[in-house]
Amino acid sequence: MAAFHIPEHVHESSGPHGGTVLLDARTGQWYAMNGTARALWSEWRESGDFDTGVRTVAARFPPALGERVRTDAGQLAETLLRRGLVSAEPSSDGSERCPRPVRRAGRGFSAAPRRNRSGATAALVVALCLLRLPFGVTVRVVAALTSRCPRPATHAQAEQALAAVRRVSRRYPGRVACLELSLAATVRLALAGLGAQWCLGSADDPYRFHAWIEAGGRPVTSPSEGELSGFRKVLTV
């Protein structure tokens, strides 16, 4: 038997339709699992044991399908292990439990237009450079930046920062979407000594992935993004 462990860099969110998405915080890679894979994942997370999880899930199906579940479980486990989403070690009794994933949470902002534009430009450059690094390094740098901010940003200040980086991004010839904009806004606030939360999340039917910032306990979005009610936070920095 093998004891399964979920590393701290794996973040999980389950949807109402029965699926689950995983985020590898080292790489920024998303993974989607169907209902059966979710059931196996949940059992492995709770018991920390491969065989126990497979038996529990297989018992929910008719005997004729039980062997198919075992085969699929082996393939799923192999994929999770290969991609570093679980680790395994031999266990004589299978009693060791698997730790749950750890989710990290994450002066007035007013300037003349030129200074604000310069700050937004610098923040966008920093964000684009950070996103060229391994994603786990990016997360750690952002966490270090925001942890040093003496004051939390208000919702209005965060809106101003997002609008500023969105304006300067129009001159950048490459890709600038929600991931780049939200990170740049977070960096812009940090440069002013203001902290905000950088959030990555998912929505279902179909699977969609999004990044945004939160300040004052509320998400900060542009009019074109609309509401984020369908998205669940998977990682908060």
Describe, in plain words, how this protein is organized in 3D:
- By secondary structure, this protein is α+β, with helices and mostly antiparallel strands.
- It folds into 2 domains: about 90 residues, Outer Surface Protein A, domain 3 (Alpha-Beta Complex); about 120 residues, no CATH class.
- The strands form 4 sheets. It has a 4-stranded antiparallel β-sheet.
- Helix 1 packs across helix 2 and helix 6 crosses helix 7.
- The longest helix is centred in the first third of the chain and has 20 residues.
- The chain is elongated and about 65 Å long.
- About 5% of the residues have low confidence.
Query: How far apart lie the N and C ends?
Result: 36 Å
Q: How would you classify the helix and strand content by structural class? A: alpha+beta
Q: Helicity range of the residues? A: 40-55%
Number of domains: 2
Let me know the largest β-sheet: 4 strands, antiparallel
Mean pLDDT rating:
81
Q: Beta-sheet strand percentage?
A: 15-25%
Radius of gyration: 21 Å
Q: Report strand order across the widest sheet.
A: 10-9-8-11
What are the salient characteristics of this protein?
2 domains; three-stranded antiparallel β-sheet; 43% helix; four-stranded antiparallel β-sheet; Outer Surface Protein A, domain 3; 237 residues
